[in-house]
Specification:
GO terms for molecular function: RNA-DNA hybrid ribonuclease activity. It catalyses: Endonucleolytic cleavage to 5'-phosphomonoester. Pfam families: RNase_HII. By secondary structure, the chain is an alpha/beta fold. The protein has one domain (7-157): Ribonuclease H-like superfamily/Ribonuclease H (Nucleotidyltransferase, domain 5), CATH 3.30.420.10. Helices cover 45% and strands 15% of the residues. The chain has eight helices and five strands, in the order αββαβααββαααα. The chain has helices at residues 7-11, 53-66, 77-83, 85-98, 132-155, 161-164, 170-179, 190-204; strands spanning 14-20, 29-35, 69-75, 106-110, 121-124. It has a five-stranded mixed β-sheet. The longest helix has 24 residues, at 132-155. The N and C termini lie far apart (62 Å).
């Protein structure tokens, strides 16, 4: 993909990086890295949370088509429980940047922390509302994770995962207490840990 790019453009390449799924009780944390093509602008990029689902889906396809390079990566539930959610997120961001087919000169990271990368990185608070490449990454990550949650809704019915996307809503917490945790729940998160402890208590009775 890098063959044929203008040299000056390569020198200026910036990757936007964002994550989705730090707060949910279940599922992977999903990240994306995107290098946009200045010659193929994408209209309407914004923080994925500020866009409708239909708009996100449309932009997802456009980003995949027009970006110079993009990569979606993740850290699994087991990694979240082993490393903690912050370190698992940093790992997933590393994977997203390393998965790009073009090496950027700078990575701009949404938030106030940067993962360890082979190139300079800059943290941008609320970057998904300020930096188009970060906004594009947020869209790829959110659409990808939302699709996974829709699939888990079918695999684990009764939890409402397709609606709340794994976040600790009253519906989710009630289902967790009533049905118990699933293999995709994060054992290190308080409500899930307490659900396992309740099951262990019942087993001892």
């Amino acid at each position: 993909m890098q063959i044929g790019l203008d040299f000056n453009l390569v020198e200026d390449l910036v990757a936007g990086v964002d994550e989705v799924g730090r707060g949910p009780l279940c599922g992977a944390v999903v990240t994306a890295a995107v290098i946009l093509d200045p010659n193929r602008p994408i209209v309407g990029l914004n923080d994925s949370k500020k866009l409708t689902e239909a708009r996100r889906e449309k932009l997802y396809d456009e980003i995949c088509e027009k970006a110079l390079s993009w990569c979606i990566a993740r850290a699994e539930v087991e990694e979240i429980d082993e490393l903690n959610i912050l370190h698992a997120t940093m790992l997933a961001m590393q994977r997203a940047v390393e998965g790009l087919s073009i090496t950027p000169k700078l990575a701009m990271i949404d938030g106030n922390r940067c993962p360890k990368l082979a190139m300079p990185a800059e943290a941008v608070v609320k970057g998904d509302s300020k930096v188009p490449a970060i906004a594009a990454a947020s869209i790829l990550a959110k659409v990808s994770r939302d699709r996974e949650m829709a699939a888990f809704e079918l695999q684990y019915p009764g939890y409402g995962i397709g609606g709340h996307k794994g976040y600790p809503t009253p519906v989710h917490l009630e289902a967790l207490e009533r049905l118990g945790p699933t293999p995709i729940h994060r054992r290190s998160f308080g409500p899930v840990r307490r659900a396992y402890e309740a099951l262990e208590g019942l087993a001892k009775v």
